[in-house]
Amino acid sequence: MAIKTYPVDIAAELKTEEDIEGFIEASIEEAKNDTDPKYLIHALETAARARGMLATAQEAEVDRANLYRILSGETDPRASTLAKIANALGYRLTLVKQSFSPV
Question: Which residue in 40, 1, 3 sits closest to 23, CA to CA?
Fold first, then answer.
């Protein structure tokens, strides 16, 4: 899946916690049928920049430079690290059973 790009910096437009929450909720809804974790990482990166990378890094107990690297897509982060970042943003990672159609 190609990550959508926008002519404006979405993070700069997210001014309040409600804005950030709305963005994350919309991202979750849009990605429901997408199995590419890069979409989730992009949503977390945008929300973390909106809230502040330093504050998010401190809350997630992740080094700020490492947080930038993880959320840039340069690395393949561990699930536990993504869970910490999601938690710092007020969310919890969960597994959801998929229903598959016979091919």
Answer: 40
Q: Give yes or no for residue 4 having a pLDDT over 70.
A: no
Asked if 20 and 89 touch (Cβ cutoff 8 Å), the reply is yes
CA distance 67 to 65: 5
What does the pLDDT look like over 23-45, one tens digit per residue?
A: 999 888 887 777 777 888 889 99
Per-residue pLDDT averaged across 72-78, rounded?
87
Q: What is the 3-state secondary structure (H, E, C) of 4-46?
A: CCCCCCHHHHCCCHHHHHHHHHHHHHHCCCCCCHHHHHHHHHH
Angle, CA of 20, 51 and 70, to the nearest 5°? 100
At 65, which helix (H) or strand (E)?
helix 64-72
CB 51 within 8 A of CB 89: yes
SS3 label, residue 101? coil
Neighbours of 54 (CB within 10 A): 11
